[in-house]
Amino acid sequence: MTKSKNSSKSMVILTLALVVLLISLFFVTKMSENVDRDTAIKNMPSLDNQPVIGKSSAEVTIIEFGDYKCPSCKAWGEQVFPQLSKDFIDTGKARFSYINTPFHGEESKLGALAAESVFAQDKEAYWKFHKQLFDTQPRENHDAPWITTDVLLKLAAAYAPKVDVKKVEDDTKNQKTLPQVNIDEGLVQKYNIQQTPSIMIDGIMVKNPFDYNEITSLINKR
Protein backbone atom coordinates (compact mmCIF):
# COMPACT_ATOMS: atom_id res chain seq x y z
CA MET A 1 0.00 0.00 0.00
CA THR A 2 2.82 2.39 0.87
CA LYS A 3 4.62 1.50 -2.35
CA SER A 4 1.50 2.30 -4.38
CA LYS A 5 1.11 5.67 -2.65
CA ASN A 6 4.73 6.55 -3.29
CA SER A 7 4.35 5.59 -6.93
CA SER A 8 1.26 7.80 -7.31
CA LYS A 9 3.04 10.66 -5.57
CA SER A 10 6.00 10.32 -7.94
CA MET A 11 3.69 10.43 -10.96
CA VAL A 12 2.04 13.62 -9.69
CA ILE A 13 5.43 15.27 -9.14
CA LEU A 14 6.63 14.17 -12.58
CA THR A 15 3.47 15.51 -14.21
CA LEU A 16 3.78 18.84 -12.42
CA ALA A 17 7.44 19.09 -13.44
CA LEU A 18 6.49 18.43 -17.07
CA VAL A 19 3.79 21.12 -16.96
CA VAL A 20 6.22 23.64 -15.48
CA LEU A 21 8.78 22.75 -18.17
CA LEU A 22 6.24 23.26 -20.97
CA ILE A 23 5.11 26.62 -19.53
CA SER A 24 8.75 27.72 -19.23
CA LEU A 25 9.45 26.75 -22.84
CA PHE A 26 6.38 28.71 -23.95
CA PHE A 27 7.54 31.91 -22.26
CA VAL A 28 11.13 31.47 -23.45
CA THR A 29 9.86 31.13 -27.02
CA LYS A 30 7.69 34.23 -26.69
CA MET A 31 10.56 36.23 -25.21
CA SER A 32 12.80 35.06 -28.04
CA GLU A 33 10.24 36.18 -30.63
CA ASN A 34 10.02 39.61 -28.98
CA VAL A 35 13.81 39.96 -28.89
CA ASP A 36 14.07 38.99 -32.57
CA ARG A 37 11.39 41.49 -33.51
CA ASP A 38 12.95 44.28 -31.46
CA THR A 39 16.39 43.53 -32.88
CA ALA A 40 15.03 43.60 -36.42
CA ILE A 41 13.33 46.96 -35.89
CA LYS A 42 16.38 48.51 -34.22
CA ASN A 43 18.65 47.36 -37.04
CA MET A 44 16.51 48.69 -39.87
CA PRO A 45 18.09 51.18 -42.31
CA SER A 46 17.36 54.82 -41.66
CA LEU A 47 14.80 56.17 -44.13
CA ASP A 48 15.79 59.79 -43.61
CA ASN A 49 15.93 61.46 -47.04
CA GLN A 50 14.88 58.21 -48.73
CA PRO A 51 11.85 57.91 -51.05
CA VAL A 52 8.90 56.49 -49.12
CA ILE A 53 5.28 55.87 -50.09
CA GLY A 54 2.52 54.96 -47.67
CA LYS A 55 1.36 56.40 -44.37
CA SER A 56 4.08 57.43 -41.94
CA SER A 57 2.00 55.76 -39.20
CA ALA A 58 2.06 52.37 -40.97
CA GLU A 59 2.92 49.45 -38.69
CA VAL A 60 5.25 47.79 -41.21
CA THR A 61 8.14 49.10 -43.28
CA ILE A 62 9.08 47.35 -46.54
CA ILE A 63 12.35 48.18 -48.29
CA GLU A 64 13.42 47.15 -51.76
CA PHE A 65 17.12 47.10 -52.60
CA GLY A 66 16.91 47.44 -56.38
CA ASP A 67 18.74 48.33 -59.58
CA TYR A 68 17.17 50.03 -62.62
CA LYS A 69 19.30 47.86 -64.90
CA CYS A 70 18.18 44.63 -63.21
CA PRO A 71 15.59 42.55 -65.15
CA SER A 72 14.49 40.74 -61.98
CA CYS A 73 13.73 44.10 -60.37
CA LYS A 74 11.60 45.02 -63.37
CA ALA A 75 9.77 41.69 -63.07
CA TRP A 76 9.25 42.16 -59.31
CA GLY A 77 7.82 45.62 -59.91
CA GLU A 78 5.36 44.22 -62.44
CA GLN A 79 4.44 40.92 -60.78
CA VAL A 80 4.61 41.53 -57.04
CA PHE A 81 4.54 45.23 -56.22
CA PRO A 82 1.04 46.03 -57.59
CA GLN A 83 -0.57 43.42 -55.34
CA LEU A 84 1.63 44.45 -52.42
CA SER A 85 0.57 48.04 -52.91
CA LYS A 86 -3.12 47.15 -53.10
CA ASP A 87 -3.10 44.84 -50.08
CA PHE A 88 -0.83 46.69 -47.69
CA ILE A 89 0.41 50.13 -48.81
CA ASP A 90 -2.92 51.54 -49.98
CA THR A 91 -4.65 50.17 -46.87
CA GLY A 92 -2.20 51.89 -44.52
CA LYS A 93 -0.76 48.67 -43.13
CA ALA A 94 2.72 49.20 -44.63
CA ARG A 95 4.97 51.87 -46.11
CA PHE A 96 7.49 51.20 -48.86
CA SER A 97 10.94 52.55 -49.63
CA TYR A 98 13.46 52.00 -52.43
CA ILE A 99 17.24 51.95 -51.96
CA ASN A 100 19.55 52.18 -54.97
CA THR A 101 21.70 49.09 -55.39
CA PRO A 102 23.77 49.77 -58.51
CA PHE A 103 25.19 46.32 -59.19
CA HIS A 104 25.18 46.59 -63.01
CA GLY A 105 27.90 49.15 -63.58
CA GLU A 106 27.87 52.73 -64.81
CA GLU A 107 24.37 52.62 -66.29
CA SER A 108 22.95 51.58 -62.94
CA LYS A 109 24.74 54.45 -61.23
CA LEU A 110 23.60 56.89 -63.93
CA GLY A 111 19.97 55.92 -63.35
CA ALA A 112 20.41 56.25 -59.58
CA LEU A 113 22.00 59.71 -59.94
CA ALA A 114 19.08 60.95 -62.07
CA ALA A 115 16.48 59.40 -59.76
CA GLU A 116 18.07 61.12 -56.75
CA SER A 117 17.95 64.45 -58.59
CA VAL A 118 14.25 64.01 -59.37
CA PHE A 119 13.55 62.96 -55.80
CA ALA A 120 15.33 66.00 -54.37
CA GLN A 121 13.18 68.30 -56.51
CA ASP A 122 9.78 66.57 -56.39
CA LYS A 123 9.24 63.66 -54.03
CA GLU A 124 5.85 62.72 -55.47
CA ALA A 125 7.03 62.82 -59.09
CA TYR A 126 9.93 60.56 -58.14
CA TRP A 127 7.70 57.50 -58.04
CA LYS A 128 6.35 58.12 -61.56
CA PHE A 129 9.89 58.60 -62.86
CA HIS A 130 10.98 55.48 -60.95
CA LYS A 131 8.26 53.33 -62.53
CA GLN A 132 8.80 54.67 -66.03
CA LEU A 133 12.53 54.04 -65.85
CA PHE A 134 11.83 50.38 -65.09
CA ASP A 135 9.16 50.31 -67.81
CA THR A 136 11.75 51.62 -70.29
CA GLN A 137 14.08 48.70 -69.56
CA PRO A 138 13.98 46.41 -72.64
CA ARG A 139 12.61 42.92 -72.11
CA GLU A 140 15.23 41.46 -74.40
CA ASN A 141 18.92 42.24 -74.58
CA HIS A 142 18.65 44.30 -71.39
CA ASP A 143 22.44 44.08 -70.99
CA ALA A 144 22.87 46.33 -74.02
CA PRO A 145 23.32 50.04 -73.17
CA TRP A 146 19.95 51.73 -72.72
CA ILE A 147 20.19 54.02 -69.67
CA THR A 148 21.52 57.20 -71.26
CA THR A 149 21.38 60.84 -70.26
CA ASP A 150 18.97 61.52 -73.12
CA VAL A 151 16.59 58.79 -71.98
CA LEU A 152 16.70 60.03 -68.37
CA LEU A 153 16.02 63.64 -69.34
CA LYS A 154 13.10 62.67 -71.60
CA LEU A 155 11.56 60.65 -68.76
CA ALA A 156 12.05 63.50 -66.30
CA ALA A 157 10.43 65.98 -68.69
CA ALA A 158 7.48 63.68 -69.37
CA TYR A 159 6.75 62.30 -65.89
CA ALA A 160 8.12 64.97 -63.55
CA PRO A 161 6.92 68.24 -65.15
CA LYS A 162 7.71 70.36 -62.06
CA VAL A 163 11.34 69.22 -62.10
CA ASP A 164 14.08 71.36 -63.62
CA VAL A 165 15.38 69.06 -66.34
CA LYS A 166 18.55 71.14 -66.74
CA LYS A 167 19.31 70.50 -63.08
CA VAL A 168 18.75 66.77 -63.58
CA GLU A 169 21.22 66.92 -66.46
CA ASP A 170 23.77 68.81 -64.36
CA ASP A 171 23.29 66.55 -61.33
CA THR A 172 23.72 63.47 -63.49
CA LYS A 173 26.63 64.51 -65.68
CA ASN A 174 28.59 66.12 -62.84
CA GLN A 175 27.53 63.51 -60.27
CA LYS A 176 26.19 66.13 -57.88
CA THR A 177 23.80 63.58 -56.36
CA LEU A 178 26.60 61.07 -55.82
CA PRO A 179 26.58 61.62 -52.02
CA GLN A 180 22.98 60.35 -51.88
CA VAL A 181 23.87 57.33 -54.03
CA ASN A 182 26.88 56.68 -51.80
CA ILE A 183 24.60 56.59 -48.76
CA ASP A 184 22.58 53.86 -50.46
CA GLU A 185 25.70 51.93 -51.39
CA GLY A 186 26.80 52.15 -47.77
CA LEU A 187 23.50 50.55 -46.72
CA VAL A 188 23.98 47.84 -49.35
CA GLN A 189 27.34 46.99 -47.82
CA LYS A 190 26.09 47.27 -44.23
CA TYR A 191 23.24 44.83 -44.83
CA ASN A 192 25.35 42.56 -47.04
CA ILE A 193 22.97 42.74 -49.99
CA GLN A 194 24.06 40.15 -52.54
CA GLN A 195 21.27 40.26 -55.12
CA THR A 196 18.57 42.47 -56.55
CA PRO A 197 15.81 42.71 -55.79
CA SER A 198 16.27 42.10 -52.07
CA ILE A 199 13.21 42.80 -49.95
CA MET A 200 13.41 43.67 -46.27
CA ILE A 201 10.34 43.71 -44.01
CA ASP A 202 10.89 45.37 -40.63
CA GLY A 203 14.55 44.42 -40.74
CA ILE A 204 13.97 40.82 -41.86
CA MET A 205 15.13 39.77 -45.32
CA VAL A 206 12.62 37.88 -47.47
CA LYS A 207 14.13 34.60 -48.66
CA ASN A 208 12.34 34.65 -52.00
CA PRO A 209 11.14 38.12 -53.10
CA PHE A 210 8.75 36.55 -55.62
CA ASP A 211 7.03 34.39 -52.97
CA TYR A 212 4.01 36.53 -52.13
CA ASN A 213 2.86 34.11 -49.44
CA GLU A 214 6.16 34.56 -47.62
CA ILE A 215 5.87 38.34 -47.92
CA THR A 216 2.29 38.45 -46.59
CA SER A 217 3.18 36.07 -43.78
CA LEU A 218 6.03 38.30 -42.61
CA ILE A 219 3.85 41.41 -42.83
CA ASN A 220 0.97 39.85 -40.92
CA LYS A 221 3.29 38.70 -38.14
CA ARG A 222 4.38 42.23 -37.34
UniProtKB/TrEMBL annotation:
<feature type="domain" description="Thioredoxin-like fold">
    <location>
        <begin position="48"/>
        <end position="221"/>
    </location>
</feature>
<dbReference type="InterPro" id="IPR036249">
    <property type="entry name" value="Thioredoxin-like_sf"/>
</dbReference>
<comment type="similarity">
    <text>Belongs to the thioredoxin family. DsbA subfamily.</text>
</comment>
<dbReference type="InterPro" id="IPR012336">
    <property type="entry name" value="Thioredoxin-like_fold"/>
</dbReference>
<keyword id="KW-0560">Oxidoreductase</keyword>
<keyword id="KW-0732">Signal</keyword>
<dbReference type="Pfam" id="PF13462">
    <property type="entry name" value="Thioredoxin_4"/>
</dbReference>
<keyword id="KW-1015">Disulfide bond</keyword>
<protein>
    <submittedName>
        <fullName>DsbA family protein</fullName>
    </submittedName>
</protein>
<keyword id="KW-0676">Redox-active center</keyword>
